[in-house]
Amino acid sequence: MLGYVVRRLLLAIFVLWGVATVVFIIVRMVPADPALLIAGQTATPEQVASLRQQMGLDRPLTAQYVQYLGQAVTGDFGNSYTHNVPAVYLIGQVLPNTALLAVLACTLAIVVSIPLGVLAALQVNRIGDRLVTTVSLIIQALPGFWIGVVMLLVFSRSLKWLPSAGLVGAQSLILPTIVLALPFIAILTRLTRSGLIEVNGEGYINTARAKGLGELTVVFPHAIRNALIPIVTVIGLQFGTLLGGAVVTETVFSFPGIGKLLVSSIQLRDYNVLQASVLVIAATFVIVNLLVDLLYAYIDPRVRLSK
Amino acid sequence: MSADQAVITIAPSHARRLRATVSARILVPLVVIGILGIGAIVVPVLYNYDPLHADLLVRLKPPGTAMPDGSIAIFGTDKVGSDLFAEMMAGTRVSLIVGASTLLIAGIVGGILGLLAGYFGGWLDTALMRIADIQLAFPSILLAILLVSVLGQGILNVIIVLSISNWVIFARVIRSQVLGLKSLEYVEAARTLGASHFHIIFRTLLPGCIAPMLVIASVEFGYVVLAEAALSFLGVGAPFGTPSLGSTISTGTQYLASAWWISTIPGLLLLVLVLATGVLGDALRDRFDPRLRSA
């Protein structure tokens, strides 16, 4: 197990380094000169030049890269061009909101989809199954930003049940959580269904049935355990999609989270904030996947023994 | 339980019915996509649609309004008085162009890299798979947003960016396909007969990779279309003057109180398009490549 943990940890560190490098390269490709952007249109060439020096932009790219990596490790991404506070500070303010949203969406998805998947698997190809599979297919094709807009239209404009934007109390979390959870619900439902159907013919399930256990008792302690193994992986993998979805969802609902910060930093060309928020999102994703992989190895001994 | 197991255990008439369902699942979405494709070409021309033309007298008219020129705006008009139906079909054209070009580029690049990595193995394979690992650490929409913010808006840039975030899946699947094919007798035979690497890769292995490539392309198509719409919705996709379903929905959000149709109807169209390609992808997978079958 220890060997597996070390290998997995090294891979995660490598991936984080790779992500940081890619972000460095992409941000340096920007045609506009960040010094010029900060100094503004009215600055004299001398002012711009001194700002460039101050920001280290006049140094060779390799030196900038080394400095950047050092800063990234210590969590120092420079100041926001527009707010003149450290980029990390801005992120620290909104990150808990996004984390809350992601955890709520994940929980909602798990709570809704596992019973639905079980229901579908219990009556394969009958009406309940058809209904669940069709609905989850439709949900998967829903554009997240569009369903967000429609929900705003229905629940806050027309019915006036829920607030339309921002984060003003727990009610503001309802719509974004649902929108963020929807694609997740679709995937998990399909996966639970197919996982249960797959273990259906196994010997231990037949044994459980032969003992005279009811269908629900067969599913709940027996079948679900093995069916859940792939679900754990997919929850980890989909967490990235969830974070990506947060970018769009937060924009629709003007929800003060890291996704909205990211989009506004693009509009304001605030590259330090952009860089920092991309790195934070990617790092979160890598860490969550690492944890999921370790959990997976713990649940299923075959994983840690095979490599 | 997979369909092929079912075919073995149940009566032949059931098997035939099963195959018939699969065919219907291929045919129906193809017809839907075909109609949308023809509509995307014909409708904007029929309506003389011009994204830069404004007719403020007829702006924000609800669906079914009779226009001054005698036509009827079945889906209403937008904030500058353009016919929403024509605008949506022009947006569909962008969706289809972006989807098709992205998959073509990502498929060719990812396919070739996957073939080479799977065939030669060694450092090339390792390097490629590590790059894939790094890229998969990015939520793909995030990578796309970051790249577009650097490259600037524009349909071509959207295609480039989405190709970059999609080649990995082609490379991975083709690589594993090649790893499986490599040790089969017919490939061994070609090698024994003295075929060059080039011949083995492109004449012997490639044909066995076409089916999984088509399957991935159809599964991914919907995601690419959604990604383009999301980028345009966020204001980093299609530039001003190029109608895209995403940007139409985005403009509509400013008029939710007065003109609900601008955001909602294009979204339904997007849903139909993505759903059709999704069903097609699933059906193609069941038909041609049961091993890739998803949940």
Describe this structure in words.
The complex is a heterodimer of chains A (307) and B (295). Chain A is mostly helical and 307 residues long. Chain A has helices at residues 2-28, 34-39, 45-55, 61-74, 87-122, 127-141, 144-158, 171-199, 203-210, 215-252, 258-267, 271-299, 301-306. Chain A has two domains: 2-73, no CATH class; 88-299, MetI-like fold (Orthogonal Bundle), CATH 1.10.3720. Helix content of chain A is 79%, strand content 0%. Chain A is flat. With 295 residues, chain B is mostly helical. Chain B has one domain: MetI-like (MetI-like fold), CATH 1.10.3720. Chain B has a two-stranded antiparallel sheet. In chain B, helix 2 crosses helix 3 (84-120) and helix 3 (84-120) packs parallel to helix 6. Residues 1-10 of chain B have low confidence and may be disordered. Classes of the chains: A mainly alpha (307), B mainly alpha (295). At the A-B interface, helix 1, helix 6, helix 7, helix 8 and helix 10 of A face helix 4, helix 5, helix 8, helix 9 and helix 10 of B.
How would a textbook summarize the main sheet of chain A?
Answer: none
| Strand line-up across the major sheet of chain B | 1-2
Q: Taking Cα atoms only, what radius of gyration of chain A do you get, to the nearest Å?
A: 24 Å
Total discrete domains of chain B? 1
Gap between N and C termini of chain B, in Å?
11 Å
